[in-house]
Amino acid sequence: MSEALRVLPLGGLGEIGKNMTVVEYGGRIVVVDTGLRFPTAEMLGIDLVLPDFSYLRERAAEIEAIVITHGHEDHLGALPWVLRELGEEHAPTVYGGRLTIAMARSKLDEHKLRDAQLEDVEPGEELSLGPFTVELVHMTHSIPDSCAVAIGTELGTVLVTGDYKFDQTPVDGSPADVSRLAELGREGVLLLCGDSTNADRPGFSPSEAEVGPHLEEVFAHAEGRIIVTSFASNIHRVQQVIDAAAALDRKVALVGRSMRKNVNIGRSLGHIDLPGGILIQPQEVEDWPDHKVVVISTGSQGEPLSALRRMAHNDHRMIKLHEGDTVVFSATPIPGNERAVNETIDRLYHIGCDVITPRDAPIHASGHGYREELKLMLNLVRPRYVLPAHGDFKRIHLHAQLAEAVGIDADDVFKGENGLPLEIDERGARFGSPEQSGMIFVDGVDIGDPADVALRDRRMLSADGIFIVVATVSEQSGESVVPPEVIFRGVPFIEQADEVVEDIRREVEASLSRAAKGGIREIDMLQQELHDDLAAFVYDRLKRRPMVLPVVVEV
C-alpha cells in the first residue's frame, strides 16, 4: 500500500498573497513558492508579512527542494528569510524559470545570501528529487517564465498552477503549453491546486497584447510629460510602454530601484528590447521638453516609500510633478491597497495632473484567468481532487463551484485554509489535523512573532499617546522626596495641559503614599501600582487610554 500524500498550504488560502504550499511524500518535502504580502493599515510600522513557516524550520532536513512558479513578490518575496531560517546546513536548492531564478539571485544578493543554491530549469525538463519527479509547465501570466509545477509521486501527480491565464496572443509570442496540460490530464492528475484570483469574473481575460495599442492612444493625447506606473515585475508591460514612447519619439526614464533592477534583468535575458538612445537618467528629465518624456515608475499600489507616492507628495529628489503632467496607472489595486492608491491619486489631482486608470481606458490586463479559463484548466487536466488556492474564501468558494460545474463531484473538491493539510491515500482524500500557520512580521530586517505586544503598543501610541512619569522615592520610607516629573507626547489635551499635569503629580504622590503605608518597597511593585492608579486616573479625566510608563528611582 502506498504512503499518504500530504499537501499543506502555509499561505495563499483565505487571502491574496504570501503563497506557500508544502507537498510531502515518503518522509520528504517539496515546497512550492515562498511568497509574502504587504501590511494592512493597522499593522503599524510593519514592513512585510510572511507566512509562518515554523513547520518547515522543524523539518529542514527533510526538504528536497523549493520550486518558485514565477518572480512576483507574493510567490518569491519571502525566500531570503526562509533560507536564512532553515540554515546553511539544510538550505535546499531553489528551482525556477530563468527570469525567476535571476530575480531570486538578485533578491538574495541584497540579503547577502550569496551561497544559496539556485538552478534555472527549462519547462518540460524533469527533475528527480527523492521520491518526487518535478516538471515545470510553461504558463502565461503578467511576467515571463511563469510556470505551473507538476509534482509526481507513486500515488499520483499534484499540479500547482501558480498564477496563470490562457492568453492566446502574449507579448512574447509564447502561449501556455496547453498540449502538455492535456497530456498530464490523460496521464492522470491526482490533485489540482488552482489559482482562484478571478473566479468572480465571467468570461475570458483580455489579452496582454491588447494593452499596447491603447497605451499608445493614451500617450498620443497627452501634451505634457507622461508618468506610467505599473508593477516593476510586469516586464511585458514595461516593454509596451517603451514601444509606445518610441512610436511617439519620446525618451524614457526609469524611476524606482526595483524598476531599474528588473529592467536590467529583463534586458540581460532578452525579454526587453530598448531602441538605441531612448533611455535617459531620471536627473535628465528636466533637461527635455515635457512633450518628449515618458517616466516609468514604481508605486502603482500606493506603497508609502515608492517613487510615485513620493512624487505625489512632492518628496522625490529628482522628479517634481506639475500641472499638465499625465499619470497613467497601468495596474489595478491589489485587494487591501485601494485606500493607499486612492490617496495617491487624490494628491496627483491636487498637484494638477491628469490621471488615467484602467477605469478610464483599457490600459491594463489582469494576469489571472477569468471563470472560463479556470474551467478550461479543470477540463484540460481532469483532476481526481481539487484544492482551490490563491484567493480569499469567497474566491475559493466560487472556484469550487466551477469545479462542480464541469463535473467534478462535490465530495472531491476541498475548500481549505492555511495550516489545514489535505491527506490523500489509496482510500481517498480528507483533511488532516491542523498544523501551525499564520503570519510572521518583518520590521526592518528582523522577523518576529505576530503575537508580540509591539503592535498593540504601537496602536495605543498612535491613538492616545504616551505619559512618562518619573518618581523619586526614599529608600527608607518609600515616600516621594521630590515632585514627580511628567512628560507626555501625542496626548490630545493641550488646552488643559498644565492643569492635568499638576493633577497627575498629586495622584502620583498619593499613590506612592498609599504604597508606603502598605509596606510596598520593591521597585517593580511600586511601578505596577503607579501604572494602575495613573491609568485609571487619566481615563477618568480624559476618557482616553494613553500608554503610561512609570519610572521609580530610589535615593
Q: Largest sheet, order of strands side by side?
A: 7-6-5-3-2-1-20-21
The CATH topology of the largest domain: Metallo-beta-lactamase, Chain A
Outline: globular
- In total, how many domains does the architecture comprise? 3
Average predicted local confidence, pLDDT? 89
Rg, nearest Å:
28 Å
Provide the β-strand percentage band: 15-25%
Commentary on this structure:
The chain is 31% helix and 24% strand. The protein has 555 residues and is α/β, with parallel strands linked by helices. The strands form 5 sheets. Strands 7-6-5-3-2-1-20-21 form an 8-stranded mixed beta sheet. A 6-stranded mixed beta sheet has the order 8-9-10-11-12-19. A 6-stranded parallel beta sheet has the order 15-14-16-13-17-18, sandwiched between helices. The protein is globular, with a radius of gyration of 28 Å. The mean pLDDT is 89.
Q: Which labels suit this protein?
A:
about 550 residues; six-stranded mixed sheet; alpha/beta; 3 domains; Ubiquitin-like (UB roll); Metallo-beta-lactamase, Chain A; about 30% helix; 26 strands; eight-stranded mixed sheet; globular; Rossmann fold
Q: How does the SSE layout of this entry go?
A:
Elements: E1 5-11, E2 20-25, E3 28-32, E4 48-51, H1 54-57, E5 63-67, H2 73-76, H3 79-86, E6 93-96, H4 98-110, E7 118-120, E8 126-129, E9 132-138, E10 147-152, E11 157-160, H5 178-187, E12 189-195, H6 211-221, E13 226-229, H7 235-247, E14 251-255, H8 257-268, E15 279-280, E16 293-297, H9 307-312, E17 326-329, H10 338-351, E18 354-356, H11 371-381, E19 385-389, H12 393-405, E20 422-425, E21 428-431, E22 439-443, E23 446-448, H13 453-464, E24 466-473, E25 480-489, H14 497-517, H15 523-542, E26 547-554
Parallel strand pairs: 3-5, 5-6, 6-7, 11-12, 12-19, 13-16, 13-17, 14-15, 14-16, 17-18, 24-26
Antiparallel strand pairs: 1-2, 1-20, 2-3, 4-22, 8-9, 9-10, 10-11, 20-21, 22-23, 24-25
